[in-house]
Write a structure and sequence with these properties.
Strand order of the largest sheet: 3-2-1-4-5
Radius of gyration: 17 Å
Distance between the termini: 22 Å
CATH architecture: 2-Layer Sandwich
Order of helices and strands: HEEEHHHEHEHHH
Strand content: 15-25%
CATH topology: Nucleotidyltransferase, domain 5
Number of domains: 1
Structural class: alpha/beta
Length: 202
């Protein structure tokens, strides 16, 4: 009931009815999402790249994926480049942030969003989404680290639970993809989620 009320409240504040499809969930489908940014501080962070891949039931639809390079106003410096590998010349051909966010919204539709510490990615995206839609991202969000916590807590209540991404890959026996590439990270989280689903925690 509360979710339905919240949905109606957001719909009433949607700036352009053309974006109404971001409320249309697709049964059995999710989108795993990851963003690379210029900073870990949400207020300062600008988008550098966006990776997303659809899941349907127990399948990861790698053929239905999205990878976008985004040109920030402030180009990344040495330390930041070392983390994600995106050089200034790579980003020179990137999209304007508003264009990239439009493509992402069309790709996602109303599908629930899946991620690892997804709250950060959504907070950065909302800096671009709110001026466009008049509202924040309305899609339901699924945090894979929270599902993993529930899985481990049921096994051993009260024990320390390591939520580092490397530990999730190790414990769930999923080969870790190369890190800090938005699409690889989105695919990796999709694999972790499917592993948890097989254990009853999807």
């Amino acid at each position: 009931m509360l979710r339905q009320w919240h949905r109606r409240w957001l719909l009433a504040r949607l700036r352009d009815p053309a974006w109404r499809h971001v409320f249309d969930e697709h049964p059995e489908e999710l989108v795993s999402l990851d963003c690379e940014t210029t900073s870990l501080d949400v207020k300062q962070a600008e988008l550098l790249s966006i990776g997303a891949v659809k899941l349907r039931g127990n399948r990861i639809l790698s053929s239905e994926s999205l990878y976008l390079l985004v040109k920030p106003q402030t180009l990344p410096q040495g330390d930041n480049i070392a983390i994600h590998g995106l050089r200034r010349r790579d980003l020179d051909e990137g999209m304007e942030p508003a264009q990239a966010v439009r493509q992402l919204l069309d790709f996602i539709g109303g599908r629930p969003l899946l991620g690892y510490y997804l709250e950060y990615d959504v907070a950065v995206l909302n800096k671009y989404v709110k001026p466009l839609l008049g509202i924040a991202l309305p899609q339901r969000q699924i945090e894979v680290s929270a599902r993993y916590y529930d899985y481990k807590f049921k096994q051993n209540p009260g024990a320390y639970i390591d939520l580092r991404l490397a530990e999730l890959y190790r414990d769930l026996a999923i080969p870790a993809p190369p890190r800090h590439d938005a699409l690889n990270d989105a695919l990796g989280v999709a694999m972790l989620y499917q592993a948890l689903r097989q254990r009853g925690f999807g």
